[in-house]
Amino acid sequence: MPSDRVFNFGAGPGTLPLPVLERAQDEFLSVDDAGASPLEVSHRGTWFRGVIERAKADLRRLLDVPDGHHVVFCQGGATMQFAMVATNLASGGTPDYVLTGAWGAKAVAEAERLGDARIAWTGADDGFRRVPTTQELASALSPDAAYAHVTTNETIQGVTFPHTPVVPESVRLVADASSDLLSRPVDVGRHAVLYAGAQKNAGPAGVTIAIVAGEVLGDVPDGLPTMLDYRTYVEHGSLYNTPPVFAIYIVGLVARWLLEDVGGLDAMLERNRAKAKLLYDVLDASPRFFRGHAEVPSRSLMNVTFRLPSEDLEARFVEEAAAGGMIELKGHRSVGGIRASIYNAMPIEGVRALAAFMREFRDRYAD
Ligand code: PMP
After folding, report:
1. What sign results for the dihedral spanned by CA atoms 199, 311, 293, 290?
2. Model confidence over 44-84: pLDDT tens digits?
3. Distance, CA 242 to ligand 1 centroid (Å)?
4. Among this protein's residues, is 56 annotated catalytic?
5. Beta strand pairing call for 148-151 and 326-327
6. Are 95 and 147 in contact (CB under 8 A)?
7. If residue 233 lies in a helix (H) or strand (E), which one and from where to where?
8. Would residue 330 show up in a list of annotated catalytic residues for this protein?
9. Which of 115-119, 166-170, 180-184 has the lowest mean pLDDT?
10. Is the peptide bond before 297 cis (omega within 30 degrees of 0)?
């Protein structure tokens, strides 16, 4: 690794695979035969057409997307998806929201601005430490809901659904997978909409991947603003207006890296499990010094969240880690503590270095 690069544990934008950055660097001034930078080329030119089509095809392959589902690229982040989902899918009644952390809470607040929405289950009273069990979910969700919205991985609390949540047959499943899409295989076919801002596992900020079931499109109400209507993206191949060309180009390179260097999402999941285990083992070995936030079955493989015995020690931990080349370990301002985001592109060496630092820090400061 170049000596001026640190291990970046930021929650997003997060670290990107080095081979992707190097390839982009090689092509930065002039790409293929275009004689221009990816920042300069036309989105209607041959080069970008190839890029966007290949990116979509590679995402389909990685995620095993069924034929009836569309992969589209939007802007406005996952936050705009909160509104798009509600406007496109809620005409059939009131949607149910499952709150396992701060992002689910934001999603339902947005849906409430646009119509009715119901909080079917919330972990707020326990401080968002776990996801509901399948039985809890089954009794919480209404069979008449317009859709059921879940956050597959809560980035701030570090709480995750270990498997695709099971919802009643009659209910459309909508998932915000911003911080775990592409980190593991997922049963796309069970989703009406699956979306993710790219800036954690899939690429840079500026593009949002949405996977939309074709059967949903027939129920989208007419009269929506053009850019808030999923049909616009499907009918125009995400090229109705100028898309975020550079961001989609990087998503394409990341997808290639996952297919060719990593070997697909099963292999990625193995790597992610191994990385997360290194950190959770340290937490479990010293539960009085490191207090993990999530209950064990709901632990995230992407965002490892924990507290230290005092806020003073937490500040010192963040500072000393940064001095040692491990940055962005401060927990989200709303919950405090420490958060280590270990997305796909975080090398195992970075996680080993952090685990070693945690043990050494504990040995120095534990009573
Ligand atoms: N959902 C989740 C799970 C997230 O982690 C984030 C961003 N951290 C968002 C939604 C909001 O995404 P964006 O900033 O792309 O709007």
Report:
1. positive
2. 999 999 999 999 999 999 999 999 999 999 999 999 999 99
3. 22
4. no
5. unpaired
6. yes
7. helix 230-235
8. no
9. 166-170
10. no
Where are the extended beta strands (E) located within 75-186? 96-99, 118-122, 148-151, 153-154, 159-160, 173-176
Cα 11 to ligand 1 centre (Å): 10
DSSP 137-168: HHHHS-TT-S-EEEESEETTTTEE-SSPPP--
pLDDT at 302 over 70: yes
Q: Which residue's alpha carbon is at the smallest distance from atom 9 of ligand 1?
A: 78
What residues form DSSP beta bridges with 70?
Answer: 212
CB 85 within 8 A of CB 149: yes
Is residue 33 scored above 80 in pLDDT?
A: no
Residue 232 has pLDDT above 70, yes or no: yes
- Annotated active-site residue 176? The verdict is yes
Query: What six digits make up the tokens of 179?
Result: 């911080």
Tell how strand 118-122 and strand 303-307 pair up.
unpaired
Establish how many alpha carbons lie within 13 A of residue 341's alpha carbon, considering only the half-sphere containing its beta carbon: 28
The string over 280-319, giving b where at least 16 C-beta atoms fall within 10 Å of a residue's C-beta and e elsewhere, is bebbeeeeebbebbbeeebbbbbbbbbbbeeeebbeebbe
Residue tagged active-site, from 58, 96, 176, 180: 176
Q: Give the predicted TM-score (pTM) of the model.
A: 0.97
* 133, 295 contact by CB (below 8 A): no
Is the Cβ atom of 179 under 6 angstroms away from ligand 1? yes
Cβ of 147 below 6 Å from ligand 1: no
How many whole angstroms from 168 Cα to the centroid of ligand 1? 26
Structure tokens that stand for 236 in this block:
């125009």
* Per-residue tokens: 366: 């534990």
